[in-house]
Each structure stands twice: as C-alpha cells, then as structure tokens.
Amino acid sequence: MNEVSQNILLKVSNISKQYPGVKALDDVSLEVRRGEIHALVGENGAGKSTFVNVMGGVVKPDKGQILLDGKEVQFLTPRHAADAGIAVVHQELSLFPNLNIATNLFLSNLEGTGLAFIPDKRIEAESRELLKRVGLEGVSPVRKVERLQPGEQQLVEIARAIVKESKLIVLDEPTSSLAEKEIRTLFRIVRELRDQGVSIIFVSHRLDEVFELCDRVTVFRDGQHIVTSDTSDLSSEQLVNLILGRKLNEMYFSPEEGHQGEELLRVERLRQLPKLQEITFSLYRGEILGVAGLLGSGRSELVRSIFGLESMEQGLVYLKGNRVTIQNPEQAIKHGIGYITEDRHKEGLMLEKSVKDNIVLANLKKLAGKLGWMKSLLERQAAEMQRKDLNIVTPSIQRKVKFLSGGNQQKVVLGKWLETSPEIYILDEPTRGIDVGAKAEFYKIIRSLAEQGAGVLLISSDLQEIVGICHRVLVLRNGRFITEYSGHQIDPAAVLMKMTGENNGK
C-alpha cells in the first residue's frame, strides 16, 4: 500500500441508490483522508442526505463499494456503521428525550449492565468531563434531555459521537440550531478531533462555515459527484456556480432608495419588557424593510407581537392609517397580515399532513362556505396553483410535507399565506436551512411581492441577505431601533458595527 492510499480512511466507489422516479445517488465516488474536515455541499435534492444515510447504515445502496481503512465494509444497520467506527449526527437528532444525558451518552456501552437508566458514579463523572469538553460544563449529566434547549441537545449529540471514539464523524447541518457561541464551541471541538486524526464529513448549506472550517469540499448535484477540491483553491462565487451548475445571476439586487407607496403599517411605542422598548417604525406599500440584529436583540418578539402571537405591554398599531387591535393570529390574518415563522417545522407546517392541506390551512374560513365536492375542488385548485406558481417540487399535492426538501417545505409555508392574499408579509428567517438555489428563488418571490404592492418585513440573521434585497434596513439592538439605512446607504460593515455595538460608544 503506497503512502497516498495509506492516507485515505474512506473510499467510496460507484455508489448508486434509486427510489421510484428518483436517482438519489448516481455512480458516486469519494475519498476522505485521515484527519481532515471534508465538506459536502449541494442543493436540496443533490443526494447529500442519501449519502449520509448510506454512511450511517440507514440506507443500503443498490450498487457500489465502500472501503474503510482499506477493507470492504457493508453497513446493513446503523449498529454496523457504529461498530465499524462511523458516527453520524443527523439533522434530526436521535437522542432519547425521556432519558438523562449520561444514559444517552453511554447507552451503547450500558447494554447488559443493568445501568440503562441510573448511571453509576464513574459514568456520571465521565459524562461531566464530556459535557465540559463540548461547552456544557454547567449542565448536570442526570438532567433529562427533554429539558435541554435545541442547541444543547445538538452538543450532547456531538459528545455522544466522541464517546464512541469514532474514526469518522458525519455532521449533517450541525449548526442549524446553534447560537454563535455554540458554533464557536463546535468548531473548536471539530478542529481538536481532526488534530487527533479523526476524519469529519461536514454537511452544510452555510458556505461561510465551509470556507472557515473545512480542508476540502465535495460538491454533489443531481445525485452525482461534481468535484472535490481544496477549499483554498475556490472562491465563494466558484463554489456557488459548481453547486448550481450555472452562474447565479442577480441573486441579490439593488432596490431603489425609498418607498413606493402608501403607509401600510405603523407601529408606535411598542413595549414588551425586557425584550422590546419603545419600538416605532413604518412599512410602506412596495417596500422590503429589513430588521437586522443579533440573537436576543428582540427581532422575533417584535414580529410575533405584531401578529398577535405575543402580547404587548403597550403600543399602538395602525394599518393604512387606521388604528387596530391585534390580539391573536386570526385577527392578524383578517387584517391582511401573513407571517412566516422562523420555525417552520413546529409552527409553520403540519408535517404529517399533505401539501394541499397545508396550503389551504390559513384560508379555511373562505372555503368553509362551499359544501361537499365544491369545497374539495377549490382546495385542490388552490394547492395546484401554488405548486405551479412557486415551483414546489413534489410528485403530488397529496404528498406529506415531511417528505419534501427544506426549500420546498418553505415554499409550502409561503403558499399558505399567498392563499390569504395579504398586503403585509412578515418573514422571519425565511431562507434558514435552505440551499443557495432555493434562496435565489425566494429572493425573486420576495421582490415580486413588493413589486405587486405588498409590504414585506424581513427578519434575517444573514447580513448579506438583509443588505442585498432590502430598500431600508432598521438595526435593532437591546430591544431598540438604533439607526436606519436606505438604498445605497446600506453598507454591510456599518450595519454589522451597529448590530454589535462596535465603535459607537455604547
């Protein structure tokens, strides 16, 4: 065995996997070196999730060969993959919420010991050390997992992969539920593991993370391996073009300065302590108004208050100059407001229901007066229209939403609100967790809504997104709007400094 082959931990050759009507993996070959962080990127539907499931023993490929440490392996179950030294941290976490942390960490080691629910002192002590290593030193190992925040659960899942002393750890969108501090902790852990000789496959839509963290990157497109390259040899634009298979023209645009029409929404002196203090702003017809701020600045509390999901301590709301009271979402919808929540799975969708059922959900009262087959026909027509207009990729409007990609799920959420014909759209992190191609489609849709006369209030953690598509940007910090930028005044560096409080004496 030569030196090059000795440095290869994982060699996948000519792997294919086909489902009815879909070739998820098409003759894919890939090599992962020992002690490297290897990014895997591609649009939703590119084959990344299927590849992860093959590596984790969840899916058996139709053909192909997998060599681990130079030996051919077959993963018929997740246990086979784990025993071979592969740990997969899926986007949907696999912890047992009703068990405590220590039990979750060492469950595979506790079989037959009688310690499945009450860890002994040794296991508890080792759990404390692991939690400290992943930045959870203040968390008790006997706390039940269901009492943890989503970001904390993600770090526990990472700790469980460390317990297994795996040769290869596959991280599938590991930062999607983490705050910035937790992301920094995760990156530190991943680098430490790499330096110890562990190989990491890092699956992410966040290309800035890929360039910051990863040594090499592989691009999948339409189930095929497109390229593997050192990240240092690619620019962001080149990587995006490889992901899409085309140049990404006008993903962002430069809106003209100022608003285009009448005042649709005015909020005066809104207060919800401790998060919001004396918030006043207006949204105009034909305008995309961005709200930029760090996590904890009060962004989501602001829009949830306007939509009636949370109560205001004080404040006035005007719609087209008329004072209104909005105490619940039903009243907000009646007043012509639509709201895309930042958590589409928990609040935006009924995952076990069909595309059709989700699209008509917010408009049931309008359809309720139609009886029998007429109501059913109108629902089908509405869903089919949104599927066509929004290019929702699904074999049928009867398909359960849980089986759609993230980008298509978000289109279903948008279609639900389009059916209510609102004049005001509140979009809270509308492109979180979707790929760059789906993002480009969303930006075109958002621009089209504004051009048709709607007002769009956009909340986003993606500074490039805020700067790239908004007519105006309001910066929110510590529950207050501290500055406003319009048109060509919108500068990403200036917005970031105001968000973080840098160089302003505060």
Description:
The chain is an alpha/beta fold. It folds into three domains: 3-244, 3-Layer(aba) Sandwich (Rossmann fold); 261-336 and 422-498, P-loop containing nucleotide triphosphate hydrolases (Rossmann fold, 3-Layer(aba) Sandwich); 343-420, no CATH class. Helix content is 36%, strand content 25%. The protein has helices at 3-6, 48-55, 78-84, 101-110, 121-133, 150-163, 180-195, 207-213, 236-244, 299-306, 329-334, 344-348, 355-359, 364-368, 372-389, 406-418, 436-451, 463-469, 492-500, and strands at residues 8-19, 22-33, 37-41, 63-68, 71-73, 86-89, 168-172, 199-203, 216-221, 224-230, 263-272, 276-284, 288-292, 314-319, 322-324, 337-340, 424-428, 455-459, 472-477, 480-486. Strands 6-7-8-3-9-10 form a six-stranded mixed beta sheet, with helices on both faces. Strands 16-17-18-13-19-20 form a six-stranded mixed beta sheet, with helices on both faces. The chain has a four-stranded antiparallel beta sheet with strand order 2-1-4-5. α4 packs parallel to α6. The longest helix is centred in the last third of the chain and has 18 residues, at 372-389. It is globular, with a radius of gyration of 24 Å. Residues 112-118 have low confidence and may be disordered.
